[in-house]
Design a protein that fits this description.
- By secondary structure, the chain is α/β, with parallel strands linked by helices.
- It has a single domain (4-101, 114-270), classed as Alpha-Beta Barrel (TIM Barrel).
- Helices cover 37% and strands 16% of the residues.
- It has 9 helices and 8 strands.
- An 8-stranded parallel sheet has the order 1-2-3-4-5-6-7-8.
- Helix 2 (42-54) links the parallel strand 2 and strand 3 (58-62).
- Helix 3 packs parallel to helix 4, helix 6 (172-180) runs parallel beside helix 7 and helix 8 (235-246) crosses helix 9.
Length: 283
């Protein structure tokens, strides 16, 4: 069985509280041997790190999601540095910009009310980029309705750190822009959706070695599970479609995406290699 990683999951969410052991067992049975669970604020990041202490195949990213920017402290950096000292923290994030639910986009919303939210999102992104560069980690980037502003803010960091645009859903032109900065993209279950042709088109222009696979679970379950809770085992369905788009075997896709993850996430290669025949050890 070809080995794959889920490079973006939210296993600290309440969606998994009742059956996390079963979720992990199904992931293992599907050949998903490493999972990165992602923090979305400081408390979520602490939970992600704590999960990594319990499960050998789990790693964490710590950060603050832009959708929760208005609740962020003035300075995230001290606590992020402390959390990132854990040996299984492999990235900073998820961070980025999200302009999808700004006040101006609501009925009767005031565009002037957008400005403090945009400013706060940009501030906490800048803090996380600073910590990542300081610690030699890379960043997991969330983007929604903010691509141009985000690229403008990230471009000065080219060569100082790398970033992955997770849950990539933009056009091939925008995918090329991301790659030109030396960054990566990552694909979710949207790749399998009937209305996901634009995402498949973007994957078509991204070479092997420059993208990764993820679920973003509990969200975006691939076909045939669409509408249900997503979980890491479903990387296999995403991988099957990705291999078709790239015209490669699952083994070739496995080798490329796992190698890309090892190159991007510092410390990911330090865990024992797990195989479908050897259950994930727990501590």
């Amino acid at each position: 069985m070809a080995e794959f990683y889920d490079t973006h999951a939210h296993l600290d969410y309440q969606d998994f509280a009742a059956d996390l052991e079963g979720v992990l067992d199904r992931a293992h049975a599907a050949g998903i041997t490493r999972i990165i669970t992602i923090g979305t604020d400081l408390e979520s990041s602490r939970r992600a790190v704590a999960l990594c202490d319990r499960v050998a195949s789990l790693y964490a990213a710590v950060g603050w999601h832009p959708s929760y920017a208005t609740g962020a402290p003035a300075d995230l950096r001290p606590e992020l540095r402390q959390l990132a000292a854990h040996p299984k923290v492999v990235a900073i994030g998820e961070t980025g910009l999200d302009h999808h639910r700004l006040p101006s986009k609501q009925p009767g919303g005031d565009p002037a009310a957008d400005l403090p939210i945009k400013r706060k999102q940009a501030e906490i992104l800048a803090q996380q980029l600073e910590v990542a560069a300081e610690l030699g980690l890379n960043c997991i980037i969330h983007e929604r309705d903010s691509f141009d502003d985000l690229v403008t803010q990230l471009r000065p960091w080219k060569g100082r750190l790398r970033a992955v645009f997770h849950c990539f859903g933009k056009s091939p032109t925008e995918a090329r822009q991301v790659l030109e900065m030396g960054f990566l993209v990552s694909f979710t279950g949207i790749l399998t959706f009937k209305n996901g042709q634009n995402v498949r088109d973007s994957l078509g222009v991204v070479p092997l070695g420059q993208f990764m696979l993820e679920t973003d679970c509990p969200f975006l379950a691939p076909i045939p599970y669409r509408g249900k809770r997503c979980e890491p085992a479903y990387v296999r369905e995403i991988a099957a479609v990705a291999a078709q788009v790239k015209g490669c075997t699952l083994e070739e896709l496995s080798a490329a995406t796992c190698a890309t993850a090892h190159g991007f996430f510092r410390g990911l290669g330090q865990a024992p290699g797990l195989t479908a025949a050897s259950p994930a050890p727990r501590r």
